[in-house]
Amino acid sequence: MAMSGLAFADGFSYTYVQATYGKVDVDDPAFTEDGDGLGVNGSFGITDNLNIVASFQTADFDTIADADEITVGLGVHAPITEMFDIVASVSYVDVDLAGFSDDGFELTGGVRFSVASVIEINGGITYRDLDLAGDDIGFGAGALYNFTDMFSVGLSAKWQEKWGADTATYALTGRINFGK
User: Fold this and answer.
1) Kindly report the CA angle at 163 between 68 and 132, in degrees rounded to 5?
2) Domain holding 120: CATH number?
3) Ranges of the chain with pLDDT below 50
4) Residue 2 lies in a domain
C-alpha cells in the first residue's frame, strides 16, 4: 500500500521505493481464481506535505488473463502528531487485462500511526473510477517493521470489488527509505 512508510523521530518518510510479492484471490459468483503478483512502487517527497506516488503491479492467474496496472499521482500528508499522519492521494490509473485496456482515476485516504519507533500501522480507503469497468471502493491495512532508518519489511491486505468480483490481495513488502 502506498500509504505506509518509516517512522522517524520527527515524522514519517515520504521518499522510498518498495517491492512487493502478493497473492490475489478473486471471488466471483461465476468463478473463483487465485494468482500471484509482483509490484514496485514508490513515493518522492517534493515539499513538507506533498509527494509524488507511482506504482506498477502485475498479477499472473492460472485460468483467467494476466493483469497489469500502473498508477501515477500526487499525495498529501498532514502530521497530527510525530506519531500520527493523515494521508490522501489522487492518481491516474491504467489497467490492462489480456489486451483489454481501461483507465481512470483513484482517490485514497488513510492514516499512518507509529506504534513504536520500529513499527508502523496504516490503513485506508480507496475509491476508483475506471471508464469501462465503473467505480469501486476498497479498504486496506498494513504494518511495517523498520530494521533500520533505511530498510523496512511489511505485510498488507486490501479488499475491494473489481469488475464485479470481490478481490482480496495479501502482500509482503520490502522497502528502502531515502529520508524525509
Assistant:
1) 80
2) 2.40.160.20
3) 1-9
4) no
